[in-house]
Amino acid sequence: MQPGARNLITDVAGLMVGNAEDHTIKTGCTVLTAAQPFTAAVHVMGGAPGTRETDLLDPDKLVQEVDALVLSGGSAFGLDAASGVADALRAQGRGFAVGAQRVPIVPGAILFDLTNGGAKDWAENPYKALGARALKQAGPDFALGTVGAGTGAMTARVKGGLGSASVVLQSGFTVGALVAVNAVGSPLVGDGRHFWAAPWEMCGEFGALGLPDGFDPTQEPFCGKRLGEATTIAIVATDARLTQAQAKRLAVAAHDGIARAIVPAHSPLDGDLVFAAATGARALDDPLADSFALGHAAALCLARAVARAVYAARRTPGDLQPCWSML
């Protein structure tokens, strides 16, 4: 296995990502879309999720494909980012056909960044406009760190951020991950600079520090947030042709990547959630073996993406936490 050419989720051909942020508010959103609708599913493991249109991603529902997926800051206010994306897609003639109407299918998830030091005294919800702006920026290349949905993200010790990673399997399938890291837990071991995700690092993508001397995985974690103040939200994607049920299994497997990279993960205080997206460009040769390999790759990419998010975070005025590079 090797990272894709960009080491981004957009190494899955056809996918595009756009970011929009407001550094005064310290928040933003991130949109994943494609020229054509794609299969999507979701799996939630955190105890405090915030979502839009996730019920329709169950395999027994009428709509089998989506037009975009949205990750946003802003807690419940941030769900409006998907409305901005849906309006812009409708203007493009995109969406599920219902008679003469088109209804864009845009599931979304949010994280809590309302107490991160930014100015939250807006007169009008800013997220609809941020969503439309992020969609307009969508393309194959995008920035990591203090951008998009990761703009105002924090963790137990340091700033969070937006991360991404990819891998190309020997079978030829490509898998990628995109994540906004805003966790109760820590991506770092103890009080140092080493990442929990170090064993899965590829090509020195987040500093090549490895694990610290005297590594102790049993240390008790520090909890500095309250119920609902966190959440790590992610998307894993592949060019494989998957049903919604298979895509959901991919999302389930990908949660292992969060647990490898953040300690603790999936707590009652987080709303940890993973979307899965499948473009369907390549048929599975062996549904059992290929699904097994794709799930492993999704967890691997997501762990790396978490660390890359924190590694790339940068300092901005009014921050309440240091970024990793300041340690």
Could you name the key traits of this structure?
single chain; 4 helices; 9-stranded mixed β-sheet; 24% strand; alpha+beta; 327 residues; two-stranded antiparallel sheet; L-amino peptidase D-ALA esterase/amidase; 11 strands
Describe the structure in brief.
By secondary structure, this protein is an alpha+beta fold.
SSE run: EEEEHEEEHEEEHEH
Helix-and-strand structural type = alpha+beta
Largest sheet: 9 strands, mixed
Instruction: Give the radius of gyration.
Output: 18 Å
Measured as a percent range, the helix fraction is 10-25%
What is the number of independent domains? Answer: 1
The CATH topology comes to L-amino peptidase D-ALA esterase/amidase
Distance between the termini: 31 Å
- Low-confidence runs: none
Mean pLDDT: 92
* DSSP strand tally: 11
Quick one: CATH class?
Alpha Beta
Strand fraction band?
A: 15-25%
The CATH architecture category equals 4-Layer Sandwich
How would you characterize this protein structure?
The chain has helices at 80-91, 127-136, 244-261, 287-312; strands at 15-22, 27-44, 51-52, 65-72, 96-98, 101-103, 108-110, 161-168, 174-181, 233-240, 273-282. By secondary structure, it is of the alpha+beta class. The protein has a single domain, classed as 4-Layer Sandwich (L-amino peptidase D-ALA esterase/amidase), CATH 3.60.70.12. Strands 1, 2, 3, 4, 7, 8, 9, 10 and 11 form a nine-stranded mixed beta sheet that branches. The chain has a two-stranded antiparallel sheet with strand order 5-6.
